[in-house]
């Protein structure tokens, strides 16, 4: 979502200042600070145990942080002395198990917790049922619904009291792959229509990149990188961050005169002292294969670097792309992805290159 000038002039919808959460001797959230602006979708992304769900629970008010402050629309809602209870925070919650009440109908689930007279509550419930295309399911019970339908009911229930902030903890993980994309897109569209700011927790990079305006990459209780999906994918903070988003080929090298020697020629390694070990990383889809020569001609050289002689070890077709595994003459093993079907025979010799602009140099 893009922000209007009016939205940019508003205070952050949510702001965390140096939030810390400890369980026993383990600090699971370590000095986390960030802002979520009105209408913005922000994603806390990271592996299991990195602290993202603990951060979410503190914001929701179901757990108390050890230190730090939580602000909502410019007002302090929680520090170590002052705490607004969960029901007073105007924050909606969606969880991976949907948490629907099995003994209540769809309409009763959506209306649970709504305040006001019966007519107003019924009108809001019916409005939301229409928006999630479940008008004829009002009197059904959760066990009678599919996973996607339950997810839409959970979304409608969370939006019913018109929260200014929505917290979503792995809300789509229980859906099958074919259903997940459509439900995510429907959910995002509805949240955008409501103008609700969103903080989404997930361990899936593809989900974060599909939904978020900003990604906060967490590791060991800290935010190690933040940025728009395009920027964080194309300019990873370190090797571990790059590996979290995709498969990588990694070649080890040593710096000499600000240059690192590899099978693909020399790479610039500014800022690294002579003798420093570095790792040159690049994604499988960025390897260029010389299809025509197939190793039968002289070694070619391209403007982006030296071509390396490689022998096909294995090739597999995965539906939308093929994966080809290579052994370089120096003993290094690499993988390349090629759109559609490309299955060269094992033992075939080819020439491959790596564009300089697609490579990362990390301290080893």
TrEMBL record:
Q: Name one GO molecular function term.
A: ATP hydrolysis activity
Q: Identify the SUPFAM superfamilies for this entry.
A: MOP-like (SSF50331), P-loop containing nucleoside triphosphate hydrolases (SSF52540)
Highest taxon of source: Bacteria
* Pfam hit, one: ABC_tran
User: Do you know which PROSITE patterns this protein is assigned to?
Assistant: ABC_TRANSPORTER_1 (PS00211), ABC_TRANSPORTER_2 (PS50893)
Fetch the InterPro entries from UniProt: AAA+_ATPase, ABC_SmlMolc_Importer, ABC_transporter-like_ATP-bd, ABC_transporter-like_CS, ABC_transpr_FbpC, Mo/tungstate-bd_C_term_dom, P-loop_NTPase, Transp-assoc_OB_typ2
Q: Which GO terms describe its cellular component?
A: ATP-binding cassette (ABC) transporter complex
Task: Show where the ABC transporter domain sits.
Answer: 14-245
Q: Which SMART domains match?
A: AAA
The keyword Kinase is assigned to this record: no
Q: Name one GO biological process term.
A: quaternary ammonium group transport
Q: What are the UniProt keywords, alphabetically?
A: ATP-binding, Cell inner membrane, Cell membrane, Ion transport, Iron, Iron transport, Membrane, Nucleotide-binding, Translocase, Transport
Q: Where does the signal sequence lie?
A: none
What is the protein's given name? ABC transporter ATP-binding protein
Q: Give the source species.
A: Halocynthiibacter styelae
